[in-house]
């Protein structure tokens, strides 16, 4: 079976990825996926070095606009595709995205539990259509926040979304990748199987080889 190599990045600039060494180390990567809370220049750098498609969702710390040296404002990494609320097919993989974290203050890229339910429900018709057309709903959900109760925190900033649990039960993506939760303790769990979905905390980066359905 064919497989696709994806470089996932999240939450923290990794020195060896933000250097020319990335070309040697990751030249076989087919796709780059950003899970949020990263400077746009970092994603653009990786994109320019590896020259493969970049998909991303915003994190709660992302600015609505980042300013370039010449004063130009950009709303995301130039050349990348914002996956929030959309489904894109890349290398025959079906990817959907849901940006942001739980709402804990004023600002963008934050949602209440109810608002995230609405985001998930807005995706649902497209997922059902995928099932008809491709025989499966979704391969990878790219999120910034973890699901409720999985890799999430007790505090109000890091609590996960309940709607993601329903999405996984109903649409059975093979992967849910997320960031938002920084991992400092090597004993902390970063991979959890939930029903048919492998939930993976990407912080600060992971390379996964994912099988592509025929
Ligand atoms: Zn975050």
Please tell me about this protein's structure:
- This protein has about 210 residues and is an alpha/beta fold.
- The chain has a 6-stranded mixed beta sheet. The chain has a 5-stranded mixed beta sheet with strand order 6-3-2-1-15, covered by helices on one side. A two-stranded antiparallel sheet has the order 4-5.
- Helix 4 links the parallel strand 11 and strand 12.
- Helix 3 packs parallel to helix 4.
- The longest helix is centred in the middle third of the chain and has 22 residues.
- The protein is globular, with a radius of gyration of 16 Å.
- It starts with a strand and ends with a strand.
- The relative contact order is 0.19.
- The model has no long low-confidence stretch (mean pLDDT about 95).
- The structure holds zinc ion (ZN).
- The site of zinc ion (ZN) has 7 residues, from loops.
Salient structural properties:
214 residues; 4 helices; globular; alpha/beta; 27% strand
Question: What order do the helices and strands come in, and which of them pair?
Answer:
Blueprint: E1 3-9, H1 21-26, E2 31-34, H2 40-50, E3 54-56, E4 66-67, E5 73-74, E6 81-82, E7 87-90, E8 93-98, E9 101-102, E10 110-111, H3 113-134, E11 140-143, H4 163-171, E12 175-178, E13 191-194, E14 197-201, E15 205-211
Parallel strand pairs: 1-2, 2-3, 3-6, 8-11, 9-10, 11-12, 12-14
Antiparallel strand pairs: 1-15, 4-5, 7-8, 13-14
Helix pairs in contact: 3-4
The structure holds zinc ion.
């Amino acid at each position: 079976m064919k497989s696709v190599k994806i470089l996932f990045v999240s939450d923290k600039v990794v020195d060896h990825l933000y250097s020319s060494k990335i070309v040697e180390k990751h030249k076989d990567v087919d796709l780059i996926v950003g899970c949020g809370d990263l400077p746009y220049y970092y994603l653009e750098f990786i994109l320019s070095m590896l020259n493969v498609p970049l998909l991303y969702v915003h994190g709660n710390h992302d600015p609505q606009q980042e300013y370039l040296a010449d004063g130009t404002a950009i709303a995301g990494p130039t050349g990348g595709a914002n996956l929030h609320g959309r489904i894109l097919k890349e290398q025959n993989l079906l990817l959907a995205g849901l940006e942001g974290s739980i709402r804990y203050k004023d600002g963008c890229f934050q949602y209440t539990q109810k608002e995230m339910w609405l985001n998930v429900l807005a995706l649902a018709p497209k997922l059902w259509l995928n099932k008809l057309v491709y025989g499966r709903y979704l391969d990878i959900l790219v999120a910034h926040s973890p699901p409720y109760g999985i890799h999430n925190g007790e505090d109000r900033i890091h609590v996960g979304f309940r709607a993601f649990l329903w999405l996984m039960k109903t649409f059975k993506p093979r992967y849910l990748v997320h960031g938002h939760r920084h991992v400092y303790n090597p004993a902390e769990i970063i991979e959890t199987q939930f029903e048919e979905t492998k939930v993976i905390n990407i912080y600060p980066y992971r390379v996964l080889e994912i099988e592509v359905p025929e």
